[in-house]
Specification:
Structural class: alpha/beta
CATH architecture of the largest domain: 3-Layer(aba) Sandwich
CATH superfamily of the largest domain: HUPs
Radius of gyration: 20 Å
Strand order of the largest sheet: 1-4-3-2-5-6
Oligomer: single chain
Helix content: 25-40%
Strand content: 15-25%
Shape: globular
Largest sheet: 6 strands, parallel
CATH topology of the largest domain: Rossmann fold
Number of helices: 10
Distance between the termini: 46 Å
């Protein structure tokens, strides 16, 4: 029978478990520890992160923590899918070494009073415009995960592209001794980006959801052909709204800084979209 990953619930237990991994890493070239941060409800996209982590490090730790500081009072913290036993079966099959699954009280004990306030890409007027609390919560919890696990690599999906840029810059700015690695988005056959929130979609909404990726692909192709970016974005936004979405944004931004751009000369370019269909908010992005 395949051994389940070790489940760690306290910082003390985590550090005790990491110590022999780290000691072995000091004596063996290419050993290393990789961290895959998640909020659970694992899907094929998360499992791709784990598979990529295993290519880079001998030991892989997956964190499962639904971080309350990322959710506004109006958002879905209480109903966010929690599937720990199913997640554990998937991680066991992939031979993950350890699962870091703290409680909120362990992560934010009584008297907790320090938070990380990212700027730069975190203030790009994209997700931060609609979820102003979000990146402060992400930056704080990810900084804690990095210092708790002390990995050599940390794997993040490109679907949450602004988050990836924020975390990458944060690790650089704070001189954290690890490499943040972005892994391409895993998609359904019809192009829909995998997300734990896809379970909220009705059958009718699920049929419409791939519109976001289709618009991104078509827009990227048009921009590559030299069509004006502003016109392409306006027409793409119209297509998304016509499909039944409430559009938050469809933007062409510099792929690293996430600053607005006016032409391909300002590139590299990343197209980013966020829109709600029914009660479910979806995001996606694509490079040009």
């Amino acid at each position: 029978m395949t051994n389940r990953p070790q489940v760690l619930r306290t910082v003390t237990a985590l550090r005790r478990a990491m110590a022999p991994y780290r000691k072995a890493g000091q004596s063996k070239s290419g050993f290393g520890i990789a961290l895959v941060p998640t909020m659970g409800a694992l899907h094929a996209g998360h499992l791709k992160l784990v598979a990529e982590a295993k290519k880079r490090a001998r030991r892989v730790v997956v964190s499962i923590f639904v971080n309350p500081t990322q959710f506004a009072p109006t958002e879905d913290f209480g109903s966010y899918p929690r599937t720990f036993e199913t997640d554990m079966k998937a991680l066991t099959a992939l031979k993950v070494d350890a699962v870091w699954a703290p409680t909120a009280a362990e992560m934010y004990p009584e008297g907790f009073a320090t938070r990380v306030a990212p700027e730069g890409a975190a203030l790009a007027g994209l997700e931060d415009k609609f979820r102003p609390h979000f990146f402060g919560g992400v930056a704080t919890v990810v900084t804690k995960l990095f210092t708790q696990v002390s990995p050599d690599f940390a794997m993040f999906g490109q679907k949450d592209y602004q988050q990836l840029r924020v975390v990458t810059q944060m690790a650089k700015d704070l001189d954290l001794p690890l490499k943040v690695i972005g892994i391409p988005t895993v998609r359904e056959k019809d192009g829909l980006a995998l997300s734990s929130r896809n379970v909220y979609l009705s059958d009718a909404e699920r049929a419409v959801a791939p519109t976001l990726h289709r618009v991104l692909k078509a827009s990227a192709q048009r921009i590559k052909r030299g069509e004006p970016i502003e016109m392409v974005m306006e027409e793409g936004a119209s297509d998304i709204r016509h499909a039944g979405f409430a559009l938050d944004y469809l933007e062409a931004r510099h792929a690293l800084s996430l600053k607005p751009i006016a032409s391909v000369k300002d590139g590299p370019i990343r197209l980013l979209v966020a829109a709600k269909i029914g009660k479910t908010r979806l995001i996606d992005n694509l490079g040009v």
